[in-house]
Fold these 2 entries.
Entry 1:
Amino acid sequence: VDVQTLLNLDEIEEVATKQISKKCWAYYYSAGDDLISKNFNNLVYKQILLRPRVFVDCTRCDLTTSMLGHKVGLPLYVSPAAMARLAHPDGEQGIAKGVSSFGACQIVSNNASMTPEQIVEGSAPGQIFGWQLYVQDQRQKSIEMLKRIGKMADKYKFIVLTLDAPVPGKREHDERSSMSINGLPKKDGSDGGVGKQLFWGTAADLTWKVTLAWLSKHTQLPIVLKGLQTHEDAYLASQYPQVKAVILSNHGGRALDTAPPAVHTLLEIRKFCPEVFGRLEVWVDGGIKRGTDVVKALCLGARAVGVGRAALFGLGAGGTEGVHRTFEILEAEIKTCMRLLGAEKVSDLGPRFVNSRAVERD
Ligand code: FNR
């Protein structure tokens, strides 16, 4: 399939689904329990209406912005996701190459299928990366990784500590795909699914004070906390000076099912502790399928928006080219949206462009 003929992210996912293995599809697609959070992550954007203004000169449209002070070409980044090579041999390096011409940031997973050195090899000058950490029970392993990342300071600009999955969610598609034909767990150690295997050795005993003090001791890089789902936790994060950004996320619905989508948490923060936006950057991910989804999150206060599955399915549909096409589509959709909305640049976006009443709960 020529990926240039694909027009939207659903079409890319459809093609990827036909090309990747069943096991890979089950791992990428899966989410906790009944997929309520996964589906709601996207649905919630459809319930927010845009409020376009007219008589605005929209000949120019500038998507450039910054993440933690580093210039990026657009407010869209790649969320950390494990095992890209399950989809395509280009793997995480293919994702890096696919997004490089957009000047997009990529967050590399602790459980990537290539080394952090390989992934940034041949990346464009100025292209920035973050590295995502799952603290290991054997802390020394994590300390060594942090050291390796610290040596690539021209590429890796921050550490993302993921907090929403101290244990994996119950992902039945993934579990089912690793059962043998007769439905019984396999004896080769692969039962429970890819997710459960990857989580083996991940620490479940992290806490605010102790873990943040430990992490600050082992990295000089700014710390980003991923997986916050309430205004209380966003506020707490803003009390730690070493925390420079938070990512509102429910892990693509893969951890606790019926946990809120990032949009709800954004709205909570706006209502209960808006000062958080001034103290740190707020990034969001989950459920992004359209440029309008991205623009709505930006209007509600997000500085940058991440895509997880979209990048993986792009890779599955056409390797590096497929990832490039995915970002090309999203970039064009974001531009069209902003022009029709009457916004010239990212910093113009704000709550006046959305009506989010239908999704406000309290
Ligand atoms: C993830 N995610 C994830 N997050 C993380 O912090 N570390 C990881 O290793 C992974 N691995 C991972 C694998 C796969 C297959 C998926 C789909 C997701 C979560 C990811 O960073 C992000 O939060 C979600 O993917 C965002 O939702 P969407 O864009 O997939 O809807």
Note: The chain is about 40% helix and 15% strand.
Entry 2:
Amino acid sequence: CTEEDGKIRIGAKNFGESKILAHMMAAVIAEQGIPVEGVVEYENTPSILEALKRGDIDAYPEYNGTGLVMLGQSPLADGDAATERVKQIFEPLGISWRERIGVANNYGLAMLPERAEDMRLTDMSQLVRRSSEVTIGIEDDFTARPLDGLTPMTQRYGFEFGEIVEVPLSDRGTLYDQLLDGKVDVIEVYTTDGQIADYGLTLLQDDLQFFPVYELAPIVRLESLARHPALGGALDALGGKFTNEEMQALNRRVDLEGRSPEAVARDALARLGLIA
Ligand code: PBE
């Protein structure tokens, strides 16, 4: 929050789930009588983390695996270990990692089931021998990640993709349209996307266990916690409140039904009795 008005600013990355969580954070904070200015959107992970470090925003929802790689650490498969580690390494930056909300949103590669069957693919490693014929669709936040993104995934599996189609993070929903239209063969997805079940897509097995775990939690500046004693408790009230399936259903309402992230967030919290 700025010195002048003391209002809390929440950040969101430019995709549905992050916006829903940001609005949930704003709502539980406001419920404690703490003034909230609203939700500011950022185009990717590096820009939102920088904004938090600088104090342009007070808090935003982040994933433990992402926190690790953003600080140059190897990502981990175990969520408890990842959480312990991010808590330690973010504290010296003046950032507190709060209770996990119960959701793991991991990366995956998805295909149309008939195309996967035609190509006899169930595992990511089987894609290697066909990768030169394959067009993959990805979003640019994935391209930019040196430890858990396109480049290390390609190296680990030995892929040589025929073509790579990249869209901005804010347009990542269009990857599904391109897949359905047959313009791309495989796309990088988030496992809590509502579209996977809706379109009956096949997720390729990450048989070399390249993708780590990404569990969602609010993160907040220590300075902001000191200024507002009820802030930490308000955010921790979201701890353990949602499952992957519930998150997928909420994402679906935003990404497929076009409802506003704020309305979806408030509705979910009201049903849980977390806001009036
Ligand atoms: N993820 C998958 C992305 C979004 C969902 C958790 C790795 C991230 O923003 O970090």
Note: The first strand starts at residue 8 and ends at 13.
